[in-house]
């Protein structure tokens, strides 16, 4: 198999953190009540989607670094916008810290994320970003349906 590097480890982290910044702006746009109660078509409220993001990225990096495969739990006690944003802000520098501890040589190594998703570490890292983008897009649909202009998707 031939490989060609198209992005550096640092570029990927900048890309991910750019998405995190945009997701934070999206959380800020929500009125408190709608953040926790509003949904369309049976989808979960945006607060639940944010809780999922919070219980995947940093815990996943911790598992990769510690070589543990503990499961995840999205039922976390962040019941206000302020609490969600505080946890978001607490995790942001830790994501950088834990990500930087992973040697690039390990990226192709298989890792069983949360004991459920066995794939190369780089696939797990891409999953963290893909999951966030997917859920942020749901938040954009909610905001638009509420008559609120979401942040520009490229404003990272």
Kindly summarize this structure in a few lines.
This protein is mainly α. 58% of the residues lie in helices and 5% in strands.
Spell out the blueprint of helices and strands.
Blueprint (H helix, E strand, L loop, with lengths): L8 H21 L2 H6 L8 H9 L2 H10 L14 H20 L9 E4 L3 E4 H25 L11
Antiparallel strand pairs: 1-2
Helix pairs in contact: 1-5, 1-6, 3-5, 3-6, 4-5, 4-6
GO molecular function: metal ion binding
Keywords: Metal-binding
Family: Belongs to the DinB family.
Describe the model:
58% of the residues lie in helices and 5% in strands. It is mainly alpha-helical and 156 residues long. It has a two-stranded antiparallel sheet with strand order 1-2. Strand 1 and strand 2 form a beta hairpin. Helix 4 packs parallel to helix 5. The relative contact order is 0.20. The model has no long low-confidence stretch (mean pLDDT 94).
Ends distance: 34 Å
Specify Rg, calculated over alpha carbons.
16 Å
How many individual helices? 6
Strand content: 5-15%
What is the typical, i.e. mean, pLDDT?
A: 94
C-alpha geometry: globular
Give me the count of strands. 2
Strand order of the largest sheet: 1-2
Outline the biggest β-sheet: 2 strands, antiparallel
**What string gives the helices and strands in order?**
HHHHHEEH
Counting helices, strands and paired strands, the structural category is mainly alpha
Report low-confidence residues grouped into runs of 5 or more. Answer: none
Helix content: 55-70%
């Amino acid at each position: 198999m031939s490989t060609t590097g198209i992005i550096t480890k640092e570029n990927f982290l900048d890309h991910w953190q750019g998405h995190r910044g945009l997701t934070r702006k999206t959380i800020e746009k929500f009125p408190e009540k709608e953040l926790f109660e509003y949904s369309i078509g049976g989808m979960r409220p945006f607060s639940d989607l944010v809780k999922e993001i919070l219980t995947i990225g940093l815990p996943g990096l911790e598992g990769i670094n510690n070589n543990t495969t503990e499961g995840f739990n999205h039922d976390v006690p962040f019941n206000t916008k302020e609490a969600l944003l505080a946890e978001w802000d607490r995790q942001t520098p830790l994501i950088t810290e834990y990500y930087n501890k992973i040697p690039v040589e390990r990226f192709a190594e298989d890792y069983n994320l949360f004991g459920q998703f066995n794939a190369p570490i780089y696939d797990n890292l891409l999953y963290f970003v893909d999951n966030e983008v997917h859920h942020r897009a749901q938040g954009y649909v909610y905001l638009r349906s509420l008559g609120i202009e979401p942040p520009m998707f490229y404003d990272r």
